[in-house]
Amino acid sequence: MSAILAVLEQRDGVLHRMSLEALAAAQQFGAELHLPVFAAVLGHGVEAVAQTLAGYDVEKIHAVDHELLASYTPDGYAIALKQLIESHRSGYVIFPHTYQVRDFAPKLATALGRVLIGDVVGHRVENGALVLVRRLFQGKINADMRFEGEPPYFASIQAGAFRADALRSGTAKVEKTTPDLRPEQIRTKPLDLFRESQRAVDLSTAELIVSVGRGIKEAGNIPIVQKLAEALGAELAASRPICDNGWLPMERQVGSSGQTVSPKLYLAVGISGAIQHLVGMKGSKTIVAINKDPEAPIFEVADYGIVGDLFEVVPALVEALKKG
Ligand SMILES: Cc1cc2nc3c(=O)[nH]c(=O)nc-3n(C[C@H](O)[C@H](O)[C@H](O)COP(=O)(O)OP(=O)(O)OC[C@H]3O[C@@H](n4cnc5c(N)ncnc54)[C@H](O)[C@@H]3O)c2cc1C
Asked: Which CATH number is 203-323 given?
């Protein structure tokens, strides 16, 4: 097996935040499998963004540059990456599990006669090979998967499964490569990107988040947690039922169908910790949970847990913060 290649996502010169988590995963796999790690960034004029990765412990960063890669297309990305992977005989190819990757990575793997293990949330090494833990059926069950046959092996890493702050620093050189791409190979024409509804709140950059779940019981009780968010200077977020009920706007929903967040502090109030919620907040640096059920799954990911009635605990916390 030759090497690990982490394919990182960027748009307009800004790396997708899950890209660094995928690179952290690649570094960890590399350390455990004793394989060198390379990275690749695709686009047009991507040398500058590739350069921002030069401070990490990777062998080389490939800036895969072509005017036909200026906008994302599944054809362009699959063709360019196939050429890079074949010329470097990559062993493992690691992606962030973004919407874009879900779009083109299965096509790329198939073009090479291989498969993709998607939605990876964990790993271990057995007999010198990687065993990946992936989610199935909307996260209801997990499965261990091992690659069979010849490399390259493709895998995409779910948000929060690896921590970007665990990235090892080092020095890497950037190498620009120009894939052989022709306009007639690109069968879709990307037009302007747009959002159906403008998001007023960007929770992904919040440092402190207080998040409320169905334990709050009714809309009229939301001000109880709102006060805690205010006392901490935190953004208010919620689990899906709270937004589905219209108790808080949709843009405040955290989880697989909401926003993915990674604040310094995530305080989950009356949230059970369903998998669809966890995928959106597992990457938080410190997780504190308040729940009256000691068996609630949220406690499995929490760094600190308070087993208690939120209607007693939250006002007491607000009081203490005000005094502090
Ligand atoms: C396709 C799909 C996508 C989904 N996407 C998302 C998503 O993006 N985000 C998301 O959050 N969910 C999502 N869900 C829903 C998810 O499966 C859960 O149903 C949801 O997260 C549960 O929300 P909750 O924890 O607020 O409520 P519950 O699961 O009902 O938990 C309420 C918790 O409050 C506790 N509690 C009750 N009273 C008190 C009290 N007085 N004091 C303290 N604790 C108390 C209970 O012990 C319980 O643990 C999705 C589901 C599907 C199928």
From this structure: 3.40.50.1220
* Nearest protein Cα to ligand 1, atom 50: 276
Supply the residue whose CA is at minimum distance from atom 23 of ligand 1. Answer: 239
* 101's tokens: 């990757």
pTM over 0.90: no
> Please, what is the Cα angle at 277 between 269 and 265, to 5 degrees?
50
Q: What are phi and psi of 34, to 5 degrees?
A: 60, 50
Q: Do the domains spanning 4-185 and 203-323 agree at the CATH topology level? A: yes
Instruction: Kindly report the CATH number that applies to the domain delimited by 4-185.
Output: 3.40.50.620
Q: Which two tokens stand for residue 239?
A: 């689990």
Asked whether the predicted pLDDT for residue 139 surpasses 80, the reply is no
Radius of gyration of the chain (CA): 21
C-alpha 92/C-alpha 230 separation (Å) is 46
Q: Is the Cβ atom of 258 under 6 angstroms away from ligand 1?
A: yes
Helices 99-111 and 74-88 meet at what angle, rounded to 10?
50
pLDDT digits (tens, 9 = 90+) for 63-98: 999 999 999 999 999 999 999 999 998 999 999 998
Domain ranges of the chain: 4-185, 203-323
